[in-house]
């Protein structure tokens, strides 16, 4: 069986929930009360996305960059 690796973006919302996204698939998001729960949920979401699309046709993840922007606070 082939193993695939996917990037995951993790954020925390205003209620303290972990919001997780996989940028390789459009609309592939989930959440959880704990990071472990959120990661299990995104794993299920990714598996569903894989069933819907051929893995050759998914977005190619290039990398992560952080951008600094000055704002008036």
TrEMBL record:
Domain HicB-like antitoxin of toxin-antitoxin system, by residue range, is 6-60
Recorded hits in Gene3D superfamilies, A to Z, give:
3.30.160.250
Classification via InterPro entries: HicB-like, TA_system_antitoxin, TTHA1013/TTHA0281-like
Q: Name one Pfam family in it.
A: HicB_lk_antitox
Among PROSITE patterns, the record links this protein to: PROKAR_LIPOPROTEIN
Protein name, entry field = HicB-like antitoxin of toxin-antitoxin system domain-containing protein
**Which species is listed as the source?**
Thermotomaculum hydrothermale
């Amino acid at each position: 069986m082939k193993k695939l690796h996917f990037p995951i973006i993790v954020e925390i919302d205003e209620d303290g929930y972990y919001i997780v996204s996989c940028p390789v698939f459009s609309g592939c998001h989930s959440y959880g009360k704990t990071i472990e729960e959120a990661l299990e949920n995104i794993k299920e979401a990714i598996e569903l996305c894989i069933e819907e699309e051929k893995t050759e046709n998914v977005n190619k993840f290039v990398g992560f960059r952080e951008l600094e922007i000055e704002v008036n606070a």
